[in-house]
Amino acid sequence: RFSTRGAAGGGTRAARSTRGLETLGCARRDRELRIRARPRGEVRAKPTRPRLGASRVRRDSDIRVGITTGRVAMSSFAATRVHARVAGVSPRASSARGLPRAGFRAPGSCGKLRARARLPLHATPRRDATVAGRGGHAVRAVADAKPPSPVKPVEHKPHEHDLPRLSPTSREDRVDLLIVGCGPAGLSAADRASEKGLRVALVDPRPLAAWRNNYGVWVDEFQELGLDDCFANVWPKARVVIDDERPEGIQLDRPYAQVDRVKLKDKLLARCVERGVQFGACAVEDVRHERDGSIVTLKGGDPSEPNALSGVEVHAKMVLDATGHVRKIVEFERDFTPGYQAAFGIVCETVEPHGFPLDEMLFMDWRDAHLDSKFKAMNDEHPTFLYAMPFGPNKIFFEETSLVERPGLEFDDLKVKLQQRLDRLGVEVKSVEEEEYCLIPMGGVLPTLPQRALGVGGTAGMVHPSTGFMVAKTLLSVRSLVDTLADEIAAGQSDESIDADAVSAKVWRSVWPDDELRMRTFMCFGMETLMQLNIKGTRQFFETFFQMSEEIWGGFLSWRVKPAGLVKLGGVLFLKFSNYMRFNFVWSALPFMLSFVKNFADAGNTFDSQKWGGMALRKNEKPPVVPGQGPIPKPNAKGSSRGAANPCDEPITSSPLDFTALVGGDVDTPRAASQLRPDKEWIEFQQRKVFQDQAPLAETLAPLHGGDEVDVLVVGAGPAGLAVAAEMAQRGVSVGLVAPDTPFVNNYGVWLDEFDELGLRDCLLHEYDDALVWFNDEDPAEGIGLGRPYGQVCRRRLREELLKRCERHGVRYMPGLVDQVTHSENDEPSTLRGSLARFDDAEMDASTALDAEFELKARLVVCSTGHNRDMLRYGEGPPPGWQTAYGVEVRMPDHPFEVNKAVFMDFRQSDPELEGDAPGAEGVWRVPSFLYVLPVDKDTVFVEETCLVARVQVPFDELKRRLYRRLKRMGLPVEKENIIEEEASWIPLGGTPPVAPQRTLAYGAAAGLVHPASGYSIVNSLRRAPSFAEAVVRGLNAGGSVEASRAGWEVLWGDEPRRQVGFYQFGMELLMSLRIEQMRNFFSTFFGLPKDLSAGFLGNDLSSSKLIVFALTCFIQGNWELRALLLTHLASAGAGVRLGQAYLYPALRAMEAAKQKDASRVPAEALARKAPPQEPNFSSFAKDLGAAEKQGMMPGFQGKDWWAVGSMDSGGNGSASAGDDEPSSGKARDDDDDAGGGGGGSATPAAAIGGPSDGSVSVAREPETSMAYWSDGSAALVVTSAVRRTGLTSSSLYGESRRKFMPAALLNLAGPKAVPAYLTGEMPGDAGWDPLQMGAQRDIMKLRERELIHGRWAMLAAVGVLTPECTAKLSLFGTPGQHWWNTSLVFDGANGIWPSLTYLGETIPNEIVWLPILHLPLFVIAESLRTGTYTLERFAHLDRMYPGGKLFDPLGIGANMSDEDLAVLKTIEIQHCRLAMIASFGFIVEALGWGAGPLDFLP
User: Fold this and answer.
1) Percentage with pLDDT > 70 across the chain
2) How far is CA 1047 from CA 858, 997, 1033, 1050, in A?
3) How many other C-beta atoms can be found within 10 angstroms of the C-beta atom of residue 483?
4) pLDDT score, position 1299
5) From residue 743, how far is each of 223, 679, 727, 796, 1004 by CA, in Å?
6) What is the pLDDT of residue 106?
7) pTM of the full structure
8) Which of 57, 243, 557, 1339 is the most exposed place for a label (fewest CB within 10 A)?
9) How many CB atoms within 10 Å of residue 887?
10) For the purposes of burial, counting CB atoms within 10 Å of the CB of 560, is it exposed (0-12), middle (13-18) or buried (19 or more)?
11) Under a CB-based contact definition with an 8 Å cutoff, are residues 1219 and 1140 in contact?
12) What number of other Cβ atoms are within 10 A of residue 1236's Cβ?
């Protein structure tokens, strides 16, 4: 099996290494400068041409950008795994890497493949082994783990032959046969044809490249071909192991061999050269067929060589396609729908002898006891087996193989299963020499028969449809194909022309005669049947198959059994099957039987792989995979002409799960915050970039000198500061500008229509026709267009435009930092003191060196300092959320992103969620992030991983890891020398606004103009600058500085802006609580809204009333899950209250104003930058990260209890709500240098992901940080908040010390027998009271179950009674005086002979009458399942009283609560049940006794 599946098609693979990326800053083409990493403390700029700018970062060598890995030379162990380059497809290089977590690492690396005890091959499965897995199977790495060692590459040296070059041809001088592809199929065809005297030419991009595939064959097959001198290893026997109970398996006494690929190719090449075969090192661009031949246009090759072949036309009598499975030259008349054999394997060296017999290869091992529960369940439906070939005591080939599936299994799944298998066997891998990625199309339709292009190998459908064998069949078919062709050409030499159509028909007939077509139909039928079998059926099939005689099973594997023998084989199999297998085999084969019989009888090529000929209802199922694993389709992924993508178009040389090293660890394992570079340093790196294409402010603006007095002084020179300075100066006031002389450093993306409205379209660097989104992995590979053009701002052009405006209107500038602002009482000028900044060109540094102090006076101060809020006072309340993003602009030749389209959001998961038995997996999820892409040109692109908003900041190193993992999954390598620029974007969202009014005005991000739900700010800041400046200047001229500040704050934070921002902040808080699936659900609904609503929301264009319409539209268009999220978030503690406060702000402000005695007096005030009025953002997010790590939460993760409702007592219950606006954190006065922490370091244990070592997620005992204020936005929070407000704890409700039905003093007087001994306090609601002693006489759990069920019905009944009573009382439905029992049948003739049903005097529609009739049988079924009268496997494991799950707990209340809160909630429920049963009984007695309803006492 090992080699006979080998690719007979041509082509070779080139392995490409992905080198480590060690540099932080890199050259930005045409704009910036390259920075090389230096030892700590040393920074040196190496300018490129043109010399534009530089960046400076402390400890540069600590920041790593990219991937460090060794290069693995790839090989494929099956011949069809040579995914040969077809005509028109040039060979591509791909990276080949080791395995991560589930892979194989060198000693000293994380996640070693090491068993605790060595076991022989046939040993009992070890159950205590720690296995690595994906998604929910996290790896426990050692604390001092280091990056994995590079895998030793295998060198594949090219062959050394002097190949005859392809000579010119013409219509009069055609070659007899042109072969495309130099794999085993193509080269053997050239050898055979030249032996027959034909004039042969062969084209392949690399004809001398070594075959990277290992081929294996049954020895007798290669002996018949005369190739038995090309063996590298031979095993006298093989073995098949069926299951764990019989590890001895079945011995196959048929020798098996590994082909010496170098010797075989050398042999064929030497014979071809000797016989004059001509070679062309190029690919095929086009093939045109004429009556007596074909014209093949070539492409590629080395254009520098003389007689280059690109564009040359080759004239040939016949063309042979030997390119494997890419199917580009031969044509198919129907969709190609094969099954796929997928396999992952390694050639490795083991630390100790592997223990496999050296004289025997393992053909199949179907055991699966080594798998964990997740992969065991997967294997039950999609079985895989081990295939092994020992080469020496410590060298062996292992391969995990899926025989056939549609579609094929993921390679990452196969890697994990192989790792778990080897871990079970006690095999420790020392090094991996080669990897194999095998994807073989099996079965499916044959090419159109006949057709002009000839085919052989994979392209001609010669893969064994039931087993994947191919090499021997291909080499035998070459003989018949070439012999027939030679005879036909020889017959036509008399008149020097041939009828090419007739010749090709005869050749195809020799390749696929009727008997061969019948054999293939039988095998396709067997393949479809095998795909329907589970692991049990598969094992029984192969046990029966290999117990037959070698003549039968060997003949079937080698295409030797004729049609009559195949019928006999089927009959013998059926007789030998067990009754179970007979039934399952017939049941699996029946849907394909009609198509099989038809094609087998008439030797047709129309076997249908669809059940019942396509008439069956089909579920669109895929093999089970973990989200976040496997490849992500590239945006330009294209299908075939019929719309179906061919996964074999390109060679498969890697999969996402590997050992790639990044930032001191691998890209698959997040690390603790203390192990990462402090985010403060990333932010400083971003702020200190210098771009020399952006001229210094001092060269453009007139100077502002110390001691000067101006009307308005703007602090800050970002886009907002320059815009507002220009607008104010335009209105006739004197304006000064104080800020460090720094460039615009951030990349800005904007909607094209918004920038066009501002008249700034000329400031765009790139314009995109559309923006694309992906919500999940099921979305089309080309993405979903939003139909709205997008643009990337040119920082230089925007800055120049704003500076021109400032210069035109006389804005003056001073480079410096403001340290203190002092406001005098009432309308006196304010005083600003600070330090001048010196810009040193020699150091190429930002303005960090400070010189002389200065003092300025201004009637009004406007703070436009971005997210540095040191000079402003902010209100008390919840802190901001955090948007962080890490991106790189990188040269990526022929990247897959369309240059005229931006990627706005790609939510396809970069990482799997924690599942199953992973440490801390319960209730922990990864904070969602998405990919944002701005293509620069076809070879350059800006890619960024963005966390939209999080309660606790997702660190930049974590986002970097996610970005590189995502790009790796997309097959997009990033190399160090190709990085142009690195960006770290940090945006606080929402939080409390500045105190308004206050003497210091603010604008831009400092004034809270960042969109709280999206992070957009630049358009809003530029758009609102004119109205803000107009109000301020008017106030300044009319009433002085106090009036100006009030007018400015009214524009920024008046009644309407507060309502708008309050709504946006409500949305931000909702987004912070969403998991990835919920986030996808929200945005799929959001972008499905009318464009005026979605675009208006993103652009701050919707009024507060329009925002209500927006919310209602979301609610209506969303699904029930989204509706539930919106309702529970609205009702959650804090979020809904804050939204209400925003909309009621005018009334609240009036009430507050009434309390103030003298609002006209403005007191003096002094603000200092180094002693800010509130904690700096740097300190806030750093403390949050530290607190999260102390509680076991990894960066980038979030837990169900992380919102930490109020302060916690010892029982875990809070005394304050998450919505309380009383912060308990102190007003820290930390200097900026004190924020952050951590540093470099090795990988942290993966067990830390999601929680402490015991797998739990802790909740803060004291709300020390900002996290204590955010609501979760889920139903669980609403219920939990209510539970905790009761003050109840599990210790007061359970156990011996629980509350009883009487006070403790009275119980002591009553004696010990007052509480029955069988009431131990284990059940919810056990108050120790059972006066009738019912629990002593019967099964108390049965009684509890009935009490709970009756109580739940009673709660529904109470609602069902009170609701109609209310509607009748209020005349909403029914009339006053009607009651809940007033139902009657009225024979009014309206329904013919049928009566009308009335309730509360109202006629009920006939359609509703059927509801209770239909409900009754469903009720009976549900009760039968609950009581156990009938059982279903799906419900068998559920708790009868508290089943949970989405069906019984759709809001996830029980699943998202702690055990402590759930225990309290169960007690509350049973108490409500008892109250409802008493109430329902009272309703019935009241109705029967007095004819009254429960609300009759009301007037």
Assistant:
1) 75
2) 17, 9, 9, 5
3) 15
4) 86
5) 75, 21, 20, 8, 17
6) 31
7) 0.58
8) 1339
9) 23
10) middle
11) no
12) 23
